[in-house]
Amino acid sequence: MDQNNIHRAEENQMSRRFEAWYNAADHSKAYTETLSEQTKQALGNDMLFQIKTRANISSPKKYKPSNQMLWCAATVILLFAVFVFLQKGPTITYTTGYGEIKMIHLPDGSQVKLNGHSRLYYRKRNFNAHREVWLNGEASFVVVHKQNNQRFSVHVSDSTSIEVLGTEFNVQNRNQTLIALREGKINFQCISTQDRYKIEMQPGQHFMLAKNKRDYQLKNDVAIDAFFLWQKHKLLLSNSTLNEVISLLKATQGIEIVLKDDRLLKRDASGSMPLNVDIDEMISNIALLYDLDIKRKNNRFLFQSKQHITHQ
Predict the structure, then answer these.
(1) How many angstroms from the chain centroid is the CA of residue 77?
(2) What span, in angstroms and rounded, lies between the C-alpha atoms of 120 and 72?
(3) How far is 19 from 26, CA to CA, in rounded Å?
(4) What is the pLDDT of residues 92-137, one digit of tens each?
(5) Phi, psi dihedrals of residue 166, rounded to the nearest 5°
(6) Cα separation of 142 and 156, whole Å?
(7) Is residue 112 exposed (0-12), middle (13-18) or buried (19+ Cβ within 10 Å)?
(8) How many helices (H) and strands (E) does the chain have?
(9) Most exposed: 36, 100, 130, 177, by fewest CB within 10 Å?
(10) What is the per-residue DSSP string for 148-181?
């Protein structure tokens, strides 16, 4: 067996061992949890030094690295990945398809309903000590209150998050961030290089943050229950524009709607419609609410103004 095949066999063996260790690590205590911050820092610095030394980064000579050198570099990178993994631990991820709603029970007893085409994940290790989840899409939360007033955090981006003590609220995190608070109290905070602010929300309030993370609105006395109706597969319209409905259905149901005239996007309507019906019926309900005609081409729907016939 030549040298290349030997290295390849060793790589495969190491990969299998790492995978077995990874799967077993969920129930074990991280080694780094037993270390002090000073020791962790020293370990990280030592690993970085080993990477630079074995890869010969400091050498100005140009040469083609040998197979042994590549093997050493790969080994160090793998060790570094293991080091990062030990600190953060594995993640548990939940996703939903278009039109799907999923109930999630978190380790602390909190409950999450995940709307269609959404993703939620959390770090399994020490979740009860650091209650944090990350959301992309839409979800409704019922958070368990802890006797020590331990916070529960929902991260909607790298710089924005929601801090909770124990409450019921809905979060939509797509093109913009929308939060509706039914019970309890939450703090929405933004910490970025451009902005730094915290908004305290009370029950019955609705918070809207623009895509740029800078412009926001906090509204009082809104129909909060309307933001939770998707859990019952219903959509409530309250002077809602056609543009809002099209964006919502595209995000949660995967429905493509095309308009012959963009001015139709500003049309508004009020009423309710079921979401647990087939696509043709859903599209017909929208056309009825907004007084539109429909033409279907493959999986796309064309909306246009109704051609009203006048009799002479």
Answers:
(1) 28
(2) 37
(3) 12
(4) 999 999 999 999 999 999 999 999 999 999 998 888 888 999 999 9
(5) 170, 110
(6) 17
(7) buried
(8) 5, 18
(9) 36
(10) T---EEEESSSSEEEEESS-EEEEEESSSEEEEE
